[in-house]
């Protein structure tokens, strides 16, 4: 069913492409805006498989080609100055009632809002990749964001099948990235100390806490285990946990050696040519199955 809503995605990279895919699958008209014609062409090609593509998707390089819209999601490179410029340009071309969202992973919302004429309709909407699959979206109001704008944004996200989670205040990295980096800090320390190798560490996390976190989340899981038990363990364990305030030498060395992960063929694991795309397809299929099971469990 086609929606009357028109969404604009600024940025035709991986995240922008998946945001456009999400909107198309939910029946929205979508315009993808990017000044990089080559990136726009890749996005165009990636979305041609969508059923609603021909009627509802447009790809443009200038605001003059956009027209009226209901929601704008900025999803360009995670650079404060660039995002400020892109957001200011967007504001010059949209109606004052149009929601203006930034898909930042952790930049301060009040800093991004500097110079905006209507910060009351602006906020962060942190999607997680692949954005067309992962349900959670962190919604981060700025100091000037109107409550009505937050409610409208959450309503729109629910229309897209998302689970908006509104933060009461903005902190660096928001919630998910703070937890993710705390986890990775301990993982890197364990690797550096020779406690475990990369493959075994991944297996331990995937097949123990990873499964339980997907089902319960960390706080409900602690409730199930017993907070007294957690407190007793915390009393003797916290002193031994990694608490460095700068990235560790292992991560610095991997990056210096060009071992950047899947995109370079090597990271913590080896990624032979051709395996990366096959793994991505497998990952999406597993995510879809997991989410379907989680949805069934909630019914």
TrEMBL record:
Pfam families the UniProt entry points to: 3HCDH (PF00725), 3HCDH_N (PF02737)
Superkingdom of this protein's organism: Bacteria
Xref: InterPro entries: 3-OHacyl-CoA_DH (IPR022694), 3-OHacyl-CoA_DH_NAD-bd (IPR006176), 3HC_DH_C (IPR006108), 6-PGluconate_DH-like_C_sf (IPR008927), 6PGD_dom2 (IPR013328), NAD(P)-bd_dom_sf (IPR036291)
Residue ranges constituting the 3-hydroxyacyl-CoA dehydrogenase C-terminal domain according to the UniProt record: 173-271
Protein keywords: Oxidoreductase
Domain 3-hydroxyacyl-CoA dehydrogenase NAD binding: 9-168
Protein name: 3-hydroxybutyryl-CoA dehydrogenase
UniProt source species: Halomonas marinisediminis
């Amino acid at each position: 069913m086609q929606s009357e809503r028109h969404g604009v995605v600024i940025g035709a990279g991986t995240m922008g492409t998946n945001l456009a895919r999400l909107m198309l699958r939910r029946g929205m008209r979508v315009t993808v805006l990017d000044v990089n014609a080559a990136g726009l062409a890749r996005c165009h090609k990636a979305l041609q498989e969508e059923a609603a593509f021909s009627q509802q998707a447009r790809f443009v390089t200038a605001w003059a080609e956009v027209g009226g819209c209901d929601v704008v999601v900025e999803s360009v490179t995670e650079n404060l100055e660039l995002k400020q410029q892109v957001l200011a340009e967007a504001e010059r071309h949209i109606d004052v009632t149009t929601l203006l969202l930034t898909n930042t992973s952790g930049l301060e919302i009040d800093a991004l809002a500097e110079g905006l004429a209507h910060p009351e309709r602006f906020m962060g909407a942190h999607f997680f990749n692949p954005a067309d699959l992962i349900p959670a979206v962190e919604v981060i109001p700025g100091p000037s964001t109107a409550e009505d704008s937050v409610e409208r944004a959450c309503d729109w996200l629910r229309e897209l099948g998302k689970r908006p989670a509104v933060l009461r205040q903005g902190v660096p990295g928001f919630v998910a990235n703070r937890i993710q980096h705390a986890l990775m800090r301990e993982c890197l320390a364990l690797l550096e100390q020779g406690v475990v190798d990369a493959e075994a560490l991944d297996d331990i996390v995937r097949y123990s806490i990873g499964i339980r976190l997907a089902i319960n989340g960390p706080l409900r899981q602690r409730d199930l285990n017993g907070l007294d038990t957690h407190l007793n363990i915390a009393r003797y364990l916290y002193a031994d946990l990694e608490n460095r305030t700068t990235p560790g030498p292992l991560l610095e060395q991997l990056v210096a050696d060009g071992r950047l992960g899947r995109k370079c063929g090597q990271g913590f694991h080896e990624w032979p040519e051709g395996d990366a795309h096959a793994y991505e397809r497998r990952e999406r299929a597993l995510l879809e199955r997991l989410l379907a099971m989680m949805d069934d469990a909630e019914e």
